[in-house]
Amino acid sequence: MFTFISQLHVLRSAGIDVPSSCEVGGCGTCIVGVLAGTVDHRDFYLTEEEEQEQNNQLLSCVSRAREQYLLLDV
Ligand code: FES
Q1: Fold observed for domain 24-73
Q2: What terms describe the molecular function in GO for this protein (predicted)?
């Protein structure tokens, strides 16, 4: 059995307060900066350019790492 634990949940569990609203990738409230790593964007808020060319932010309620790590700017 697989249970998805969002980055938003992990950040909050570590005591980092990240605001949220929809928690389904639609509002942009939970956005955080990305310093390194490749993001698997699962939202429908960021534009394709923001996701592919800039690759410097993600929506923590739904997005994931494509590699073994992501370095977030929180
Ligand atoms: S809380 Fe709305 S996009 Fe994450």
Answers
A1: Ubiquitin-like (UB roll) (3.10.20)
A2: 2 iron, 2 sulfur cluster binding
**DSSP H or E stretch at residue 8:** helix 7-13
Residues belonging to the chain: 74
Write down the residue that tokens 């394709």 correspond to.
48
pLDDT digits (tens, 9 = 90+) for 4-16: 789 999 999 999 9
Q: What is the pTM of this model?
A: 0.90
Residue located nearest, by CA, to atom 3 of ligand 1 = 25
Point out the ligand 1 atom lying closest to the alpha carbon of residue 27.
Answer: 2
DSSP 3-state assignment of 48? helix
